[in-house]
Amino acid sequence: MGGHRPGWLSAWVSWATVLYLLLPITIILPVSLTDQRFLSLPYEALSLQHYARLLTTPAWTDAIGQSALIASASTLVAVVLGTACAIGCWRLSRRSTELVRALMLLPIIIPSIAYAVGLYRYFARLGLLDSFTGVVVAHGVTGIPYVVITVSTALAAFDPRLESAARGMGATLAQTLRWVILPRIMPGIVSGAIFAFIHSWDELVVVLFIASRRVFTLPRKIWDGINENLDPAMAAVAVLLVGMTVLLLLLDLALRRQRAD
Amino acid sequence: MSGRAGHALSLQGLSKRYGSFVAVQDASLEVGSGRFLTLLGPSGSGKTTILMMIAGFVEPSEGRVLLDGRDITAVPPERREFGMVFQGYALFPHMTVAENVAFPLRVRRLGRAERDARVRATLDLVQLDQFADRRPSQLSGGQQQRVALARALVFDPALLLLDEPLSALDKKLRAELQDELKALHRRVGRTFINVTHDQEEALSLSDEIAILNAGRLVQVGAPSALYERPATRFVAGFLGRSNFVEGEAERDAGGIVLRRGGTRVLGVGEAPPGPALLSLRPEKITVLAEGEGEENVVEGRIAAWSYLGAGYAITVATADLGELKVHLPAWRIPLVPAEGMPVRLGWPRGAAVAVAEDPA
Ligand SMILES: Nc1ncnc2c1ncn2[C@@H]1O[C@H](COP(=O)(O)OP(=O)(O)O)[C@@H](O)[C@H]1O
Ligand SMILES: [Mg+2]
């Protein structure tokens, strides 16, 4: 008699949460399509003028390029170091390596503002402030946890007898790594790379602290833009940022799905 | 395969301890060149541990491993040049059958042409040439097992080590592959060391069987020698079935005489005067017809029986020797069994073998 199904409340809460998460995106998308010259909803028609401007204004294309370059380079750093660390811990697999693995997750656990302040002091001494290398190092290091997590997960599912089999057939450690271990955990590495890329792609706090004039990532450019003027191009660039992230997550999902078959 | 002969392996006083737990204790063993030796024992008896010490994956706590008289105890597994079929096969799932088999050759940096030729020849040998481009997941259990064999044989290993190679297969396939494995051993002429807990497999495949119990090698010998003359109660019970008769031994010219109650059982083997044990295989006992005699005769009543198609399994309760199990081919039984029916059992002296109790 009209009684509610079990899970009624939780269903509503879930939907409200989804809505809440999606709301900012549902607002920036129409705003980015406005026909006006200021941050507003479209008045008379939808327009792509702000996207066009985004892709033709050197200041914006520069920022996009810098962000992409920094994200790619720091992904490389994170993937190499994170994979090496995960494999090292897995091979040694002692109590002390558990500690190392936990330490590697610190960048996720520590508030990024605290991390940024610390980096600022170190980088000042090392002369890395406001440099491409500095940002790549910072993003690379903070991207390591994502790679360590996904690669460790992949290694946990790796059958150790495959390694013994390879050694038994005469393979050196390098050969075993290249032909057996790496191919088996590649999905984990790719996942980790995608997350490390996304992490750098939309990171702001650290960049605010350690970069000023020369290094201008996309999130930083939006931040400055918001403070200085209310250009709708910012909404467009935000959509771009979100779009890229969603695309990468879908890629990750697709790769996982493909592997599951 | 080249004409290179197999290699001889020798284990000298091998032990392996994990903390205070002794997994293998003082195992010594000689395996002649080109022989097929099986390590047989129940689960947990230390078979895999011994095999892994031979392969070099497990470091012995004590003892040495010699190959053709050369001490290889300290040589790491990747330098021992042994072929190995792992329990569960451990095929590389991301490679095709041909790539799996080519792996040991790739590791040795063989030229492409020779590599392809050897892979093809080895796949022919195990009758898998049709499946070269499949992945292991697309093969049946029996086919995977053959890929593992091909991969272990392709580089002409000094020794082939097999850890329960047939245990993952169903019974019918197991019998088939057992024959194949035996034929393969003849063809390649290598030294094979096989591990199993299946006594039938061990009996049918091996030139020699080494029986393990709780980390100790109990007895080593040809299958028929172990079956006919088991050294201990464990061997007699594990390798086939056996009745055991306990009593007081007396020496006599033909072997031993065991006295139990009013019955004297004639047996073969050695036992010092005093408490002793005889093993008596069920298929070596017959039911005697009226007037028929034997070296040993015992009367009793049928306590239980079952029909097995090829014959009967009968349990006979006797006054002095307790219950005796008897296996009879259908054509040799002079009566139709029924519970409570009185029967006379007989067996030749050689059927009763003196065995030792196992050390605790
Ligand atoms: N790495 C290890 N650490 C502790 N105990 C082990 C280890 N490997 C094997 N054992 C123990 O040693 C005994 C023999 O094991 P194993 O050689 O694998 O037996 P089997 O192959 O005959 O079944 C078992 O009781 C097992 O639990
Ligand atoms: Mg085992």
UniProtKB/TrEMBL annotation, chain A:
Keywords: Cell inner membrane, Cell membrane, Membrane, Transmembrane, Transmembrane helix, Transport. The keyword Transmembrane applies. One of its GO terms (biological process) is transmembrane transport. Its main location: membrane. It is a multi-pass membrane protein. One of its GO terms (cellular component) is plasma membrane. The chain crosses the membrane at residues 12-33, 68-90, 102-123, 135-158, 179-198, 233-255. It comes from the Bacteria. InterPro entries: MetI-like (IPR000515), MetI-like_sf (IPR035906). It is found in: Cell inner membrane; Cell membrane. Residues 64-252 form the ABC transmembrane type-1 domain. CDD domains: TM_PBP2. Belongs to the binding-protein-dependent transport system permease family. This is ABC transporter permease. It comes from Muricoccus nepalensis.
TrEMBL record, chain B:
One of its GO terms (cellular component) is ATP-binding cassette (ABC) transporter complex. This is Spermidine/putrescine import ATP-binding protein PotA. The complex is composed of two ATP-binding proteins (PotA), two transmembrane proteins (PotB and PotC) and a solute-binding protein (PotD). InterPro entries: AAA+_ATPase, ABC_SmlMolc_Importer, ABC_transporter-like_ATP-bd, ABC_transporter-like_CS, Mo/tungstate-bd_C_term_dom, P-loop_NTPase, PotA-like, Transp-assoc_OB_typ2. It comes from Muricoccus nepalensis. It comes from the Bacteria. One of its GO terms (molecular function) is ABC-type polyamine transporter activity. PANTHER family: SPERMIDINE/PUTRESCINE IMPORT ATP-BINDING PROTEIN POTA, SPERMIDINE_PUTRESCINE IMPORT ATP-BINDING PROTEIN POTA. Belongs to the ABC transporter superfamily. Spermidine/putrescine importer (TC 3.A.1.11.1) family. It is an enzyme of class 7 (translocase). It holds the Pfam family ABC_tran.
